[in-house]
From TrEMBL:
Name of the protein: CO dehydrogenase maturation factor
Single Gene Ontology BP annotation: negative regulation of cell division
Pfam families documented for this protein: CbiA
Residue ranges occupied by any CobQ/CobB/MinD/ParA nucleotide binding domain in the UniProt entry: 5-233
Organism field: Desulfoprunum benzoelyticum
Molecular function as annotated in GO: ATP binding; ATP hydrolysis activity
Signal peptide interval: none
Entry superkingdom: Bacteria
Lineage, top ranks: Bacteria, Pseudomonadati, Thermodesulfobacteriota, Desulfobulbia, Desulfobulbales
């Protein structure tokens, strides 16, 4: 299963990606985390892994990547980066890191002033997800860039599920509903994880969302806050994360989607 984790900047999507990855791995799943956020610098630290070679850099930077993506458009073409069928076992090894049995693939990062937009990074993510075929016991979690642009680039097209992380913020709630509408247009179901929740804000957060789509409400957690602040591996064990993982492992993609725009 491929799951896109998205949300407003600062909502905690990277934190939730790692906590979900750890819980899923502990339940016996093989987990690949794809860092598809061009601005996130520390996902590997939250996992406790080393920084692997960035995939776009390994392909020769923007110039080399442009040529590789052109060749990848020919589905008969194979190289070190794009096989006709990609699996968790044949991804480019130099672009992978691993910690506690969880693999990490970093797509690309913005590094220099004026180097251009992140569209090419989105192109790599889209090409990988279109080819990646996971087994029944394998789960791929994609930490998306903040906002909705990944939908515009059709990166989510080959995902089975979108999970939108929502923090106590009016814009975050509105973005979550917009994400649901856009994902529905691609035939992908969206569910919500509420983050940084306490009793005073829970009712206000749920009022603006379809409650049947809320799979977990994560309380504020000082341990996670301090680990994040120090760039340490996230290790908090929370029953709400376990509940979200239970939903994920039992989820079955519907044969058809009743689109409501």
């Amino acid at each position: 299963m491929k799951i896109m984790i998205c949300g407003k900047g600062g909502c905690g999507k990277s934190t939730l990606t790692i906590l979900l990855a750890r819980a899923l791995a502990e339940s016996g799943k093989k987990v690949l985390v794809i860092d598809a956020d061009e601005s996130n610098l520390c996902l590997h630290r939250l996992l406790g892994a080393h920084q692997p070679e960035i995939m776009m850099d390994a392909m020769g930077g923007r110039k080399g990547t442009r040529e590789v993506l052109k060749q990848a458009a020919d589905h008969e073409h194979e190289d070190d980066f794009f096989k006709q069928v990609m699996t968790l076992d044949n991804l480019p090894g130099e672009c992978l890191a691993e910690a506690d049995g969880i693999k990490l693939l970093v797509v690309g990062k913005i590094k220099e002033f004026g180097e251009g937009c992140a569209c090419m990074i989105g192109g790599i993510s889209k090409a990988v997800l279109a080819r990646l075929q996971e087994k029944a016991d394998e789960i791929v979690l994609i930490d998306a860039e903040a906002g909705l642009e990944h939908f515009g680039r059709q990166v989510d097209k080959n995902c089975d599920l979108v999970i939108c992380v929502v923090d106590p913020n009016y814009e975050s709630i509105q973005m979550a509903e917009r994400a649901r509408q856009i994902a529905a247009g691609a035939g992908v179901q969206t569910y919500f994880i509420l983050n940084k929740v306490d009793g005073e804000v829970l009712e206000a957060m749920t009022a603006g969302l379809d409650r049947q789509r809320i799979i977990a409400a994560i309380p504020r957690n000082n341990e996670i806050f301090l680990q994040n602040l120090k760039g340490q591996p996230l290790t908090a064990d929370m029953p709400q994360i376990a509940a979200a993982c239970s939903f994920i492992t039992s989820y079955r993609k519907p044969l058809s989607l009743n689109i409501k725009m």
